[in-house]
Amino acid sequence: MGSGHSHRLHLPGASPVHRLPAHTKLVAVLAFVVVVVSTPREAVWAFAGYALLLAAVARAARVPAGFALRRMAVEVPFVAFALLLPFVARGEQTEVLGVHLSVSGLWGAWNILAKGTLGVAASVLLAATTELRDLLLGLQRLRMPPLLVQIASFMLRYGDVIADELTRMRIARESRGFQARGPRAWGVLARTAGALFIRTYERGERVHLAMMSRGYTGAMPVLDGSAATRLQWSSALTLPVTALAVCLLGWTL
Q1: At 142, phi and psi to the nearest 5?
Q2: What confidence tens digit (pLDDT) does each residue in 36-66 have?
Q3: Residue 125 and residue 54 in contact, taking contact as beta carbons nearer than 8 Å
Q4: Nearest to 73, CA basis, from 121, 126, 27
Q5: Residue 7 · residue 132 · CB < 8 Å
Q6: How many C-beta neighbours within 10 Å does residue 20 have?
Q7: Alpha-helical segments (H) within the chain
Q8: What is the mean pLDDT of the chain?
Q9: What is the rounded distance in angstroms from the CA atom of residue 241 to the CA atom of residue 243?
C-alpha cells in the first residue's frame, strides 16, 4: 500500500479530524462502540447524547450529513430485521396504533436500531476521514498480526482489479449475444465464475513472484513510523471519554 488508493467512503479534507493519526482514531471508534453497546437500552436520552457527539465530530470533520446518510445504507438489512421483532417476539403485548406488539420485541428493536445506527455512523465517519492506506498502517501500529494486515491490504488493492476483470468478462459475453435469463444461463455463469477464480489465482501467483523478486520476506515495510503526540491522543479520545461519562449516568439514573 505504498501508493495512494482512494475509496468511495473517503472524503478528502484537511480538518482536525482528518489530520489525526489513523491508529488514534481506530482506538477512539472501538472504545466508543464498546461504550455504546454497554449502555442500558432503557436510557433513551443517552443514545441521543451519543448522536449529538457524532454530529459534533462530523461537523468538525466537515462531513456533510447527506454524504454520511447515503453510506449508512448498509444498515438497511439490520433495520428490516429489527422492525420484525415486535411482531414475532413473545411475552407481554401492548397496542400501538391499533396493532398488538410485543413489549420485549419493541425494546429489542430499539436496542438494535440505536446501537447499530450509532456504530455504523462512527464507522462511516472513520472511513470518511481516513485513507485506506492510513487505516492499514494504523492497524500495523496497533500490533495487529502482520499477516492479517497484509491480507487486508492485498484484498483492498486487488479487489478493484478483480472487479474490472469481471466487468470485461461480462462485456465479452454480452458482445456475443449472451443474456442471463432463466436457468439455462446458469451454466455459463458458473463457467464464468470458474474462469474468474483461475485468472485471480494466476494473477496472485504473478504478483507474489514479482514481490519476491523485489526482496519481499513476508513482512511489509513500515513507511510511516511517527508516533502520535499526547495532544493527538487526547483529541481522539475526547469522543469515547465523553461517551463513557454519558454511559455511567445512564446506569446511575
Answers
A1: -85, 10
A2: 999 999 999 999 999 999 999 999 999 998 8
A3: yes
A4: 121
A5: yes
A6: 21
A7: 16-19, 22-38, 44-61, 65-71, 76-88, 103-128, 132-141, 146-175, 186-213, 230-236, 238-252
A8: 84
A9: 5
Q: 3-class DSSP state for residue 198?
A: helix
CA 244 – CA 202 distance, rounded (Å): 49
| CA 145/CA 142 separation, integer angstroms | 9
Q: What is the pLDDT of residues 195-212, one digit of tens each?
A: 888 888 888 888 888 888
- Cell readout for 228 is 502520535
Strand 93-96 with 99-102, pairing: antiparallel
- Choose between 62 and 220: higher pLDDT: 62
Share of the chain above pLDDT 90, in %: 31
For the record, the C-alpha cell of 94 comes out as 401492548
Q: How far is CA 45 from CA 155, 164, 239, 247, in A?
A: 40, 47, 17, 10
- Write a three-state SS string for 139-161: HHHCCCCHHHHHHHHHHHHHHHH
* Nearest in space to 9 (alpha carbons), one of 131, 150, 118: 131
